[in-house]
Amino acid sequence: MLWSRRLCWPGRETVFWCADLLYLRLLADADVPRPLIQQAKRYRYGLGCVQIQLALSNPPDWPDDRLLAGQPHLLRSMKACALAIAHAKNGDLPSEPTLSVDVPTQLDPSRAPRGAAIMRVQVLQLPRRPRGDAASEIDVGDGTWNEDLKNRFADRIVNLLGRYLPNVPGAILGRHVISPEDLARYNPNSGPGEPVRRINGTGTELPF
Hints:
The chain is an alpha+beta fold. It has 2 domains: about 5-40, no CATH class; about 50-190. It is about 25% helix and about 20% strand. The strands form 3 sheets. Strands 4-6-7-3-9 form a 5-stranded antiparallel sheet. A hairpin with a 2-residue loop joins strand 1 (about 5-10) and strand 2. The radius of gyration is 19 Å and the shape is globular. The N and C termini lie close together (about 5 Å).
């Protein structure tokens, strides 16, 4: 499988992780083998992502020290995880999505004032333009990720986070919410708002 291609010019280096950007745009006028072009046209992006950056007055109180390392995924059950993905694929905001959590200050405390912490919470399976809400609580309007929609969904995520880490909601000093549309603007490799170029067979890579 091909997941990325690195191209170099004098004085600069560019990395493209997306087959469509590479073969259909950057190399549109180049002599690219026809099978590559055909496969690039079949390239499909995955689901979208919302990221919530949190500034905390104190670190999260993990229930198990093993969770201090890596990037834990918090979920009630695999059934709930599958249901949330089904909601997202159907165009709905999941009522109980899986949360991917990392706390950079656990490895580098200097990234926050003494005793404080920073946290990133990601919901990695979301509709890029929602048509509804599985919990029937959030009016998604026309599906645009405006500030109201971002913050109402972020409120849901913070409340859900409190189920697993009860001290976190009360420790939040500030937050910044990044939607699929924001990701698309920040990084063309995100396409319409997919968070990462996965290599685990979730439909975002191009097989050869």
